[in-house]
Design a protein that fits this description.
Blueprint lengths: L1 H5 L7 E5 L3 H12 L4 E5 L2 H10 L4 E5 L7 H9 L6 E6 L8 H6 L4 E4 L5 H37 L5 H16 L4 E5 L7 H6 L5 E4 L10 H10 L6 E4 L2 E7 L5 E7 L6 H30 L3 H26 L6 H15 L4 H13 L9 H4 L7 H7 L2 H9 L9 H5 L21 H15 L11 H10 L7 H13 L3 H4 L8 H10 L1
Parallel strand pairs: 1-2, 1-3, 3-4, 4-5
Antiparallel strand pairs: 6-7, 6-10, 8-9, 9-10
């Protein structure tokens, strides 16, 4: 019965069976290959370690008592370079197995006492397979979010509506792995649409089976366009996803249709994230072209551009959070602390706004830092720390293509500079550092010290403030530190009173459950 349970799509899961008993490895290989796994064998533990360095394996079935090294030593060596492989420890006698503490420290996912039946081992393997597939979904989701972020910069640079819709079609097809995508604009619903037609704007554009003819869902599309009075823009119909295009007056004037697609939860969420941005860009460009001809609806265009600006900020913040799950909410808190400090210093509204936005974006450069360094559960090596120190410059580079953020570029780049000139990336000191960056540096350090990380506990508020005072005049501006200390001391509940807003993704919650 267990074999029937496990016979699913397992041929993309690779197993290495390591035992100095050739009969045992041959038996494991025969058994699990019969249910669809790709199983390799190894009888020399030292060769096995070297093999795992060069070949990819998802699961290691590992004997404990071997020669010349035992299973626990094999795991120690493997964990020096591979933290992803799932390891199941096999032993002939339970009394000879390492203690539970050692199993946990070595990050071993399962323990199996050898017998003539493999039922329990099947259960362990099946559990590993489920976790592996969940992690693949999470990684794929994060990669897709990063792809959307990169695409957004491109979309906002288009000036021609036809070129823009061509690009949106191709991006949707790539994002959802489908061949059939179309955009339909309803000319009766767009004010002054005839002006766009005069410029050669296409009312219908598609790829795949929609390249020449409109979809065979005209009735359903019409119903969606007519009946869409809700705030949402994405709708599911059978195996197709629709995103409605709405004007500034909330009037539907077109639809983006994708399908057939796998309408799982992850795909729907990705389409929602992408469609919100793409639809907004299409809407803005249509409005912009009409304005260029008649100079109408100028005020509404600015309102829409501001909405896009805020959406971009929020989306990029979510992507940074998805990159490093364990520091989720850090940028929001840094922004809030920095705003509170800027106001306490009596800065102008424009200054405070720059600080708020730069605080949200100060760590966006970490998108360019490898996960194995960013999420390392322990101290960094000098080489790894040098890579981490590139994130301010990477952050400036990421947002430099968006002209709306020109006024925060240097703030993002300089938030790790020090008053004494020993900071990075440019070694600025004193008045060479923007005041906004000095403020964010204090807020960033305070939140980092008072937040718990995987490799250390948080400091108390009092301990963190003492550390800031110790570094006044060297790392931080003295007057700003004094103001911040007074601000926190006069309002001990500041962290609780600040209104954090987090948009949690189900897939990130799933990741937490998997780790538990």
């Amino acid at each position: 019965m267990r074999k029937n349970k496990i016979v699913q799509k397992t041929n993309d899961i690779s197993i290495l069976a390591l035992d100095d008993d050739e009969i045992m490895t041959a038996t494991l290989q025969s058994y699990f290959q019969s249910v669809g796994f790709d199983v390799k064998t190894e009888n020399d533990p030292i060769k096995a370690v070297e093999r795992i360095k060069t070949e990819h394996f998802d699961i290691l079935l590992l004997d404990f008592l071997m020669s010349p090294i035992n299973g626990d030593e094999v795991v120690k060596r493997i964990r020096e370079f591979d933290h992803d492989i799932f390891i199941i420890l096999l032993t002939g006698h339970k009394s000879m197995a390492p203690p539970i503490k050692t199993i946990r420290e070595l990050d071993i996912q399962g323990y199996y006492e050898k017998s003539n039946r493999f039922d329990e081992l099947e259960l362990l393997v099946e559990s590993c397979v489920k976790s592996i597939k969940h992690m693949r979904i999470i990684n794929s989701y994060q990669n897709s979010l990063q792809k959307i972020l990169n695409w957004m910069n491109d979309l906002n640079g288009y000036k021609n509506i036809n070129d823009l819709t061509d690009t949106i079609l191709k991006q949707c097809a790539e994002l959802l792995d489908c061949e059939d995508v179309c955009i339909y604009l309803n000319k009766e619903s767009v004010r002054n649409y005839y002006l766009l037609v005069e410029k050669g704007v296409k009312t219908f554009n598609g790829i795949g089976k929609y390249s020449e003819t409109k979809p065979n869902t005209n009735h359903e599309v019409s119903e969606i366009i007519r009946g869409s009075n809700e705030n949402k823009i994405v709708y599911l119909y059978n195996d197709m996803l629709f995103a409605v295009l709405k004007s500034a007056e909330d009037k539907v004037f077109g639809v983006l249709a994708v399908g057939p697609v796998d309408t799982n939860k992850a795909n729907i969420q990705l389409f929602e994230v992408y469609a919100e941005q793409a639809v907004a860009v299409v809407k803005n460009l249509i409005l912009h072209e009409i304005i260029n001809i008649r100079s109408v609806e100028l005020e509404k265009m600015y309102d829409t551009m501001h909405d896009n600006y805020m959406e971009t900020i929020d989306t990029m913040r979510q992507i940074v959070d998805a990159k490093d799950y364990y520091t989720r909410g850090h940028s929001d808190r840094v922004s809030a602390y920095a705003v509170a400090l800027a106001k306490a210093l009596g800065k102008s509204d424009d200054f405070v706004q720059r600080v708020r936005i730069a605080g949200l974006f100060h760590d966006v450069g970490k998108l360019g830092i490898p996960d194995n360094i960013l999420q390392k559960p322990g101290p960094l090596t000098d080489e790894e720390y040098d890579i981490i120190k590139t994130h301010p410059a990477k952050g400036k580079q990421i947002i430099s293509s968006l002209s709306s953020f020109d006024d925060i570029l240097n703030i993002v780049e300089d938030h790790h500079e020090r008053i004494d000139g020993k900071g990075y990336p440019n070694g600025l000191k004193g008045d060479q550092i923007p005041d906004e960056a000095k403020i964010i540096s204090i807020a960033d350090t305070f939140d980092a010290m008072t937040s718990k990380r995987t490799y250390r506990n948080s400091l108390t508020t009092e301990q963190a403030l003492e550390e800031l005072k110790r570094c006044r005049g060297t790392q931080f501006d003295p007057h700003m530190v004094d103001t911040f200390v007074d601000l926190i001391n006069s309002n001990s509940d500041l962290r609780k009173k600040l209104d954090w807003t987090f948009k949690s993704l189900d897939v990130l919650e799933n990741k937490e459950k998997i780790k538990q």
